[in-house]
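[Automated response] Your request has been received and processed.

Submitted sequence:
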Amino acid sequence: MENTEINKVKFFAQYWGQKVFINPVLSPSPVDNTYIFDYSEPEDIDQEYLELKPLSSITDELLLTAIQILDSNNEFTELGSLQIGREIIQIVDNINSEVARNEIHPQYIFHFADYLRSKGYALPWMGLSVKRLEEYGWIKIKK
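Generated structure:
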């Protein structure tokens, strides 16, 4: 995917409503991502970015919460939930990955990725790795 303004805006939409949007021309602090459509000037798009968390910062507690939310049929045991969550993160983080385990339905992976985005985590998008998203200037990872 090319580094174009329209693709950048499409990427930003994945984090709609999250307090991760930064327009350094207006403020160095994150604001709701809806701000880009309300107050940003088109000429600012090159400088705007999302400040996101690395997947490496996910806690076991968040993993268990995500699995419990997504696993309404209780298919995963509590003992296996952390392992399943870690496997899904590996799949989500590797844009060329196949689903490694037959019992992890692709639906879980997509919902899990959406859940992580809702919490402000950086994820690959449309063939672009997190590293490439950083190189494009679309995101910065929180330290």
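Summary generated for your ticket: The chain is about 40% helix and 15% strand. The two ends are 27 Å apart (CA to CA).
If you did not submit this request, please reply to this message.
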